Amino acid sequence: MNPPAVITAENLTKSYGELIAVDGISFEVPAGESFGLLGPNGAGKSTTMKMIGGVSQRTSGKLSIMGLDPETHGPEVRAHLGVVPQQDNLDEELKVRENLIVYGRYFGLPLSYLRPKADELLEFAQLTDKAKSRVDALSGGMKRRLTIARSLINEPKILLLDEPTTGLDPQARHILWDRLFRLKEQGVTLILTTHYMDEAEQLCDRLIVVDKGRIMAEGSPASLIREYSTREVLELRFGSERNATIGVELAGIGERVETLPDRVLIYANDGESALEQVSARRLRPLTSLVRRSSLEDVFLRLTGRSLVD
Ligand SMILES: Nc1ncnc2c1ncn2[C@@H]1O[C@H](COP(=O)(O)OP(=O)(O)OP(=O)(O)O)[C@@H](O)[C@H]1O
């Protein structure tokens, strides 16, 4: 039997005046899943998260979190949720450990619970030795981990993460991904937005690709890649002058040729054999690279645009 859905959205819509930021999206997230909203800036990801978190009212449609409507049962819904917003909003005046305790007090949790819980969460966030540090002395990655630790103070069943690793360096991102994996192993349902395809591939069991407030596709990263791309991609650079016109000369190689401003992509199941065909036509790229298809290719196929602006 499938686990029950902890979040159900049906035709969820949010308009800001004339602008439809979220345009009738529907999805279900079963308990324990790591579910992603992948899309470029402005796609409507944060707006969807805010509606789930009960801090933004929907214009129309239905939304249910653990069987409750966040608009009519705000406090009950928030008790099940941990929220990691896009911008860290830690209290810079307070020390690291105090941030956890003071936040827990907002939930009305007793100090006898909060003190050991704060220590446990600092351990989890690898911040035990920073317990007494000032927040403004922490690195970006540490602040993110502290924000995540803080969001876990009430032992939420669902964690909402809006762009969890934006602005972090690769090492800090990997540490964070590892922590999120651990939460998933503990059975926490993760809902995350990202415009990084590698993050979506690493973290999400299933995701929706969103663009301009609409769902373009839905599935696991692997199934989306299988459905919308080839196994491999041959990336060629011919220099800015030739890139624009070379597409015609490459026609027929692989399943599809996509011309971007700085490179040409040939979609083929066997990239090396596509490269041999390029050589056979006496076309000499400045650089060539064969790689596996990614969600970036899925997005390009679905929208004709690149995921990262
Ligand atoms: N409070 C608001 N008032 C008016 N328009 C808004 C408001 N919040 C968001 N928007 C608009 O709604 C659209 C969707 O924004 P949203 O922040 O949800 O996108 P996003 O996919 O999360 O992108 P980002 O990663 O940049 O946050 C954008 O066009 C944005 O300008």
Explain this structure.
It comes from Arthrobacter ramosus. Belongs to the ABC transporter superfamily. Residues 7-237 form the ABC transporter domain. The chain is of the alpha/beta class and 309 residues long. It folds into two domains: 5-220, P-loop containing nucleotide triphosphate hydrolases (Rossmann fold, 3-Layer(aba) Sandwich); 230-292, 2-Layer Sandwich (Alpha-Beta Plaits), CATH 3.30.70.920. 37% of the residues lie in helices and 27% in strands. It contains eleven helices and 13 strands. The strands form three sheets. It has a six-stranded mixed beta sheet with strand order 5-6-7-3-8-9, sandwiched between helices. A hairpin with a 2-residue loop joins β1 and β2 (19-30). α3 packs across α4. The protein is globular and about 75 Å long. The two termini are 41 Å apart. The relative contact order is 0.14. The mean pLDDT is 93. Bound molecules: adenosine-5'-triphosphate.
